[in-house]
Design brief:
Order of helices and strands: HHHHHHHHHHHHEEEEEHHHHHH
Number of domains: 3
Radius of gyration: 29 Å
CATH class of the largest domain: Mainly Alpha
Number of helices: 18
CATH superfamily of the largest domain: Tyrosine recombinase, N-terminal domain
Distance between the termini: 74 Å
Helix content: 40-55%
Strand content: under 5%
Length: 432
């Protein structure tokens, strides 16, 4: 039960909660929306026969709150409510799914503590336990799958079991950093609502110890990039050629490349451009509105090389679609020869063949994205501009990732430093 002087309080037993959830489901409502609706009724008109007991505002004010007035819900209850609130905003379903996974670790360690009583040491203990819990749950899952295979129909027919299942990956520093970020944001929310006295996840030692590792940055140098472009231009016209040019010329992510459509390319105006509004979820083939961040929706100026190739392939693809008895549209997927884009693994096979045939072994698809960023910065482009084109949330993130990979950024700094000191000395009458 949440208690706060400025809130209405709902008191329910476990049985009442179960019945309330069933009623909410039957009405197509969330539990919180059902409670809000019932709170509009007089307390006398809602009783146990109506699934739950509702306490009206007058009665709620008479209920004893915590001595300090802070929220007395358990961390589990509060976190689940926080995720539910976020699910009604602009947060993507994928993000909500990830946050529910974070809740597993929180609930298993400190979930039963009152949200206002959690300390930074409690948060640390939760983060330390993540690898152990991940390993434990993974092993339990493997054992369950092994038992299921023993009774499976196909296994009985073969009278044998297939190759033993691989051990699942163990959650490490990245997961710890993400859980810490989730707790920090949740407690910021609670603190702003005056429901907790402080943010226990904001302790500096937590940020220093549980840091998310930076992504591998492996750009091509300018001469390598030129050789890569020449190899791509030698390819015959196809969706593969267009995909490689799109990655190289715009720095977009592979999942954004898969979602390119005729409407993604702007051929009119002062210069061609590529508009990124959609993406394909890794492993899937369905084009969805780009969910990562608002910054992910952007327009990237591009060279005529990409624009000309896109025009030619759109014409070829449109004819392919017509031959199938379908109508080409501006939302027709371009990264295939059919009505749906190919899966990432299919594209990946073409990628591997291309880099092996042209001597670029070891180059990852993301290397082209890093190349776009670093070479643009090296060419003197504004960090804010590059950040927008990359779809990053802030220029500081872009600079943090790529500053160390920009050639010549520190060249001459030593002499400039001494020259500045000499100039200051001369102004004061000193001669060096």
């Amino acid at each position: 039960m949440e208690r706060h002087p400025k809130q209405i309080h709902v008191r329910m037993s476990e049985d009442e909660v179960t019945r309330a959830k069933a009623l909410a489901k039957s009405l197509g409502m969330t539990l919180s929306d059902l409670i809000r609706t019932l709170l509009q009724l007089p307390a006398s008109s809602v009783g146990e026969s109506d699934t739950l007991i509702v306490i009206d505002r007058t009665t709620a004010l008479k209920l004893p709150a915590g001595e300090d007035g802070y929220c007395t819900s358990t961390l589990t209850e509060y976190a689940e409510r926080y995720v539910e609130v976020r699910s009604h905003g602009s947060v993507s379903p994928e993000t909500i799914k990830n946050e529910l996974n974070y809740l597993r670790y929180i609930n298993a360690t400190i979930g039963d503590k009152m949200v206002c009583k959690v300390t930074s040491d409690d948060v640390e203990g939760c983060l330390i336990a993540i690898p152990r819990l991940s390993r434990q749950w993974g092993q339990e899952r493997i054992r369950q799958l092994e038992e299921n295979r023993k009774t499976a129909t196909w296994a009985k027919k073969k009278k044998t079991l297939v190759t033993p299942l691989k051990e699942p990956p163990i959650a490490g520093s990245d997961t710890q950093a993400k859980v810490l970020k989730f707790l920090r944001e949740m407690y910021n929310y609670a603190f702003e609502k005056e429901q907790v006295p402080k943010n226990p996840a904001h302790a500096r030692f937590l940020s220093r110890v549980f840091k998310q590792s930076k992504p591998l940055i492996d750009p091509l140098m300018a001469d390598e990039a030129m050789r890569f472009l020449e190899a791509v231009l030698k390819l015959p016209l196809s969706w593969v050629k267009l995909s490689l040019l799109a990655l190289f010329c715009t720095g977009i992510r592979p999942e954004e490349m898969q979602a390119l459509m005729p409407g993604s390319f702007l051929f009119t105006g002062p210069e061609p451009a590529t508009r990124i509004t959609s993406a394909v979820k890794r492993g899937g083939v369905k084009i969805e509105d780009y969910p990562k961040t608002d910054a992910g929706r952007r327009t990237i100026p591009s060279d005529s090389i990409l624009a000309d190739t896109a025009k030619e392939w759109i014409a070829v693809k449109s004819q392919m679609i017509e031959d199938m008895g379908l109508m080409p549209t501006m939302r027709m997927p371009l990264m295939s020869e059919g009505p749906r884009p190919y899966a990432y693994n299919t594209w990946r096979k073409h990628w591997v063949k291309f880099i092996e045939d042209n001597g670029f072994e070891g180059i990852r698809p993301y290397s082209l994205r890093h190349t776009f960023a670093t070479l643009n910065l090296a060419n003197g482009e504004n960090i804010k501009t590059v950040s927008v084109l990359m779809g990053h949330e802030s220029p500081s993130y872009t600079l943090d990732l790529y500053a160390g990979y920009v050639p010549n950024t520190a060249m001459g700094i030593g002499s400039r430093y001494i020259d500045y000191i000499r100039s200051a000395g001369q102004d004061c009458g000193f001669i060096y």
